[in-house]
Amino acid sequence: MHKLEIEIKAYEQLCISYHAIDDFRAKLLGLLPLVTGTSMSFLLGKLEDVKNISIEMSSLLAFMGAFGLLITLGLFSYEIFGIKKCAALIKAGQDLEDSMNIENGQFLQRPQNIAHFINEPFAAGVIYPTVIAAWTFFTLAFTWPAANPLIPILVLAMGFAGILLFEHNLRKTYWGNKHHVNTRQKSKDEHTSTPERGDLGSTA
Fold first, then answer.
1. For the chain, which residues make up each domain, given as ranges?
2. Could you read off the pLDDT of 87-138 as tens digits, one per residue?
3. What is the distance of C-alpha 103 from the center of its chain?
């Protein structure tokens, strides 16, 4: 089989994999806050008197809060791994588009961010830590009320900073401090002296 045919098949499969992961991650980002808010409203709606809760009911609500917290942590871990997988697929896609001389490929020309920092990992860094902090607050309200709101705020701040740091390190791992420019575009730039394209190293 000709090298170009192999590259085209690999590129097609890579695009399918990337879009499947990206679509699933987007659905999770949209559903997680909705499910969390609905669940908390349902649980609290069952309480007739919030100030006079029995020990059994308090323990049950604390358990449900811990359950929601652990489920969200699991989804957050999956999201972090998804970011890493998407970064690898984007880099592989850029290399294939470069090899096949595709100037306007979806990986080489993909939008990077808004205002230099708003992108998919930023959105994940806002939503997941916020939901984790909400479940932490809910759980502590029935186990250690004095810890609210300090611990949830710390959880939110650490989660947000952690995912941004992770994305920054991932960017350096796959792209370093250099811009990814395909060979054909680079050749045109050298002849026309036009500015180099922006950083194509967004991770997700």
1. 3-88+110-179
2. 999 999 999 999 999 888 899 988 888 888 899 999 999 999 999 999 999 9
3. 27
Read off φ and ψ for residue 114, nearest 5 degrees.
-115, 130
Instruction: Please check whether residue 96 is in contact with residue 6, taking contact to mean a CB–CB distance below 8 angstroms.
Output: no
Counting other chains too, the contacts that 186-190 makes at CB distance below 8 Å and 24 or more residues apart are none
Tokens for 137, please give them.
């607050």
Give how far the C-alpha of residue 155 lies from the chain's centroid of Cα atoms, to the nearest Å. Answer: 17
Which stretches does DSSP call E strand in the chain? none
Contact (Cβ atoms closer than 8 angstroms) between residue 90 and residue 203 = yes
- Among 61, 74, 204, which residue's Cα sits nearest to residue 132? 74
Q: What is the mean pLDDT of residues 30-59?
A: 86
200 pLDDT higher than 80: no
Backbone angles phi, psi at 106, to 5 degrees: -70, -20
